[in-house]
Amino acid sequence: MKLRRSTASIVLVGLLCAIVAVIASVSVGSVSVSIADSLRVLAVHLLPIDLDVPPLPDAIVWNIRMPRAIVALLSGSVLGVTGTVLQGSLKNPIADAQLVGLSSTAAVGALLGFWLGYASGGPTIAVVAGAVAGVVGALGVRWLAARIGGEPSRFILVGIGAGLGLGALVATASIAIHDPRIPDVTFWFFGGLGAATWGVAGVLAIATALTLGGIMPLARRLDVLSLGHEPARHVGVNVATTLAVVLALVGLGTGASVGAAGVIGFVGLVGGRVAARMVGPHHKLAIPASAFIGAVFVVGADVAGRVGARGFDVPVGLTTTVVGGAYLVWLIARNKVPV
C-alpha cells in the first residue's frame, strides 16, 4: 500500500506541476495573452462549457502555443524516462540518449523523413521516421558493442563515437540539401518547437505511450540490472533480451522526440538524476518521477527562452544544455558521479 500511495503522490504532484507549466507556456510569447484569457481558451476546448473568447487569443493559444506545449511536455517526459532507464541498465549515472548516440541516429531518420516524406505526410513523417531510426540505431549500437565486448562501458563508447559521426553527417546534409522544408542546423543540435503542430503532437503522443507503456512493466527487471549484469544473470534475468527490449523502447521514444523537436540535450541526465535523488533507485517510482521532471524541465526551458529573449526564439535545447551542463559540473564537483 505504501508503494501505491507513493506512486500516486508522484503522479498527482507531477500532473499539477505539468498543468502549471503548460498554462505558463500558452500565456507567454511575442503576443501578450493574459492567463485569464488562456484559461478561458483551454476551458472552451477541453470542457463542455461555452465562454466568450476573443478570436485572436483563441487562435494563438489553441492553434500555435498549445501544440508547442504538448510537444515539449511529451518530449521531456520520454527523454526523462530514457535517462532513468539507461542510467540503471547501463550502470552509468550520467547516461542519456544523447550520450549513447541514440539522438544522432534518430536524427538521420528524421532528416530523411523531412526530405522524402514531407509531401505525403508533412512533419509527422519525420516523427515516424525518427522513431524507426531510433529503434534501428539502438539495436545497431547494441550489436556493435556486443561484438567488441558487450559490457555497458563498451556500449557507451560505441554510442559516443557513432553519435558524433552521425551528428556531423546530419548537420552537413541539412546544409547541403538546401530544402526549406528541412530545419536548419540548430534544430539538429539544440532542438526547436516553433514548428509544432497538432499532427506532430498526436504522433508523438502515440510513440510516448508505447515507450512508457512498454518500459513500466520492466521496472523490476531494471532494478536487478542496475545491480550489475552478472548478478542479474545469476538470478535468472535474460540480460541480452531485456537490454534489447529496453533499448528498442528507448530508441522508439528518443527517435520520435527528435523527429518532433530535434535534439534536446541533457534532459535524460537531469530527469534521471533528479528522480533518483527524490524517490530513490527503484524504477517503479523513478520512471514516473523522471517523466514528470523531464516534461516540466523542457516546458520550463521553452518558457524561459521566450521570456528571456525578446524578438527571437531561443532553441529549447540551448537552455536545457546550459542548465544540464551546469548540473553535471555540480555533480562532479560534489563527487556525486565517478570520474
CATH superfamily, by name, is ABC transporter involved in vitamin B12 uptake, BtuC
Q: Which of globular, elongated, flat, extended, rod-shaped describes the shape?
A: globular
CATH third-level topology:
ABC transporter involved in vitamin B12 uptake, BtuC
CATH top level label: Mainly Alpha
* Helical run tally: 14
Structural class: mainly alpha
Indicate the radius of gyration in whole angstroms: 20 Å
Number of strands: 0
Work out the count of structural domains.
1
CATH architecture: Orthogonal Bundle
Helix and strand sequence: HHHHHHHHHHHHHH
Helix % is over 70%
Share of β-strand residues = under 5%
Residue-averaged pLDDT: 87
| Terminus-to-terminus distance | 39 Å
Give a brief rundown of this model.
The protein is an all-alpha fold and 339 residues long.
Describe the structure.
This protein is mostly helical and 339 residues long. It has a single domain (2-29, 64-333), classed as Orthogonal Bundle (ABC transporter involved in vitamin B12 uptake, BtuC), CATH 1.10.3470. The chain has helices spanning 2-27, 35-46, 55-89, 102-121, 124-147, 152-177, 185-190, 198-215, 219-225, 229-234, 239-261, 267-279, 283-308, 316-333.
Task: Write the SSE topology.
Blueprint lengths: L1 H26 L7 H12 L8 H35 L12 H20 L2 H24 L4 H26 L7 H6 L7 H18 L3 H7 L3 H6 L4 H23 L5 H13 L3 H26 L7 H18 L6
Please tag this protein with its features:
mainly alpha, 339 residues, 14 helices, ABC transporter involved in vitamin B12 uptake, BtuC, globular
